Each structure stands twice: as structure tokens, then as C-alpha cells.
Amino acid sequence: GGGAYGAAKAGGTFDLVRFVQQPQVLARIVSAIFALIVFACLVGDGYTNPPDDYKLFCIFNHNEDACRYGIGIGVLAFLACIFFFMVDVYFPQISNATDRKYLVLADLGFSGLWTFLWFIGFCFLTNQWSWTRPEDVYIGADSARAAITFSFFSIFSWGLLLTFAY
Questions:
Q1: To 5 degrees, how large is the angle CA 90–CA 97–CA 3?
Q2: What's the confidence (pLDDT) of residue 75?
Q3: How far apart are CA 11 and CA 117, in angstroms?
Q4: pTM given for the model
Q5: Number of neighbouring beta carbons within 10 Å of residue 163
Q6: Does the structural domain 24-164 have CATH classification 1.10.3470?
Q7: Which of 34, 47, 65, 96 could form a disulfide with 154 if both were Cys (CB 3.0 to 4.6 A apart)?
Q8: Cα 86 to Cα 8, 91, 93, 162, distances in angstroms
Q9: Sequence-distant (≥ 6) Cβ neighbours of residue 118 within 8 angstroms
Q10: Count of Cβ atoms closer than 10 Å to residue 7 Cβ
Q11: Average pLDDT in the 30-59 region?
Q12: Residue 72's pLDDT band (boundaries 50, 70, 90)?
């Protein structure tokens, strides 16, 4: 009896405590925090320059694409988490089964795509970090390692979101 995508349960009052305790909401918050950490580390310490030069370069083997990719998927993942968090808030109020279906499918597709993109990002950043010469790293090594670590964790957090959407 829940109807299509839970449409029969639509309506009612909003309970914040019950909402925040939902596993999907917790996984979405964790995914947003991981994305924030990745792009903040790359924006903050992902670019550096030698003491005798003014030109900035990406800390990952001087590969600008590595920093751009990490920042790009991190920012988009963070914004998507905010969007789908708002969808989670309003989802119980949507009574149209077709609208609910499209929102669930959008969450499913986006979560699947972002799980894959985080995997690619982790592999790309790890590979570029392994080719980075130690003498090229003046500051930012910890931020680079944090970006790699949290991109790895993001694979699983978005995979969990994919599972919940399924």
C-alpha cells in the first residue's frame, strides 16, 4: 500500500528530527561534506608556486586538469547534494506519482554518474600525485592527500546514495 514511489503517503507535517534520522539524508550530508573538503583543499592549497616565481601551478604534477577536475566534480557534487537535500525535504509533499518517479530516477542517475566520476577523480588524482616530484611541493601536500582521501570516500558515499535511490 505505499502507492507509486510512496505517493499514497504524501502530505502531513514536516518532522525535522525524523527527517534528519533518515539514512538517505545522512548519506547526502556526508557526501556534501566530503565534496566540500575535496574542492576546498584544491582551491586553498592545490595551486602553488616556487619561491622565485610568481606563476601558480597545480600541485598534482603541474597538471592543471587534475586540479580543475577535482574542483569541478567537488563543486557540482556539493551543489547537487544541496538540490537533492531540498528534494528530500519536499518529496513527502509531492502527490503526483509521475513527478516522484522522475525525481527518484534523477537521483538514481546522478548518484550513479557521480559514483563513477569520483572513482575516475580518485584514480586521476592518485596517479598525478604519484608522478609529482617532492621538490615541487612547497606547501599543500597534506591538502593534496586529503583531496585524494576524500575523493576515495566519496565513491562509497555516492554509492550509498545510489543504493538508497534504487
A1: 100
A2: 97
A3: 36
A4: 0.87
A5: 14
A6: no
A7: 34
A8: 20, 8, 12, 17
A9: 73, 77, 151, 154, 155, 158
A10: 17
A11: 92
A12: very high
Cα distances from 19 to residues 3, 23, 141, in angstroms, run 20, 9, 38
Report the alpha-carbon distance of residue 41 to residue 67 in Å, rounded. Answer: 10
End-to-end CA distance of the chain: 19
Q: What is the average pLDDT across 116-125? A: 98
For residue 36, give the C-alpha cell.
Answer: 566540500
The CA-based dihedral angle spanning residues 26, 32, 33, 36, taken in that order and rounded to the nearest 10 degrees: 180
- Average pLDDT for 9-22: 75
- If one counts every other C-beta atom within 10 angstroms of the C-beta of residue 98, the result is 11
pLDDT at 11: 56
Average pLDDT, the chain: 89
- Supply the DSSP string of 36-104, one letter for each residue: HHHHHHHHHHSEE--TT----EETTTT-HHHHHHHHHHHHHHHHHHHHHHHHHHHGGG---HHHHHHHH
With cut-offs at 50, 70 and 90, classify the pLDDT of residue 5.
low
Task: Find the helix packing angle between 141-165 and 97-130, rounded to 10°.
Answer: 150
101: which residues sit within 8 A by CB, 6+ positions away? Answer: 4, 5
| Cβ atoms of 67 and 59 closer than 8 Å | yes
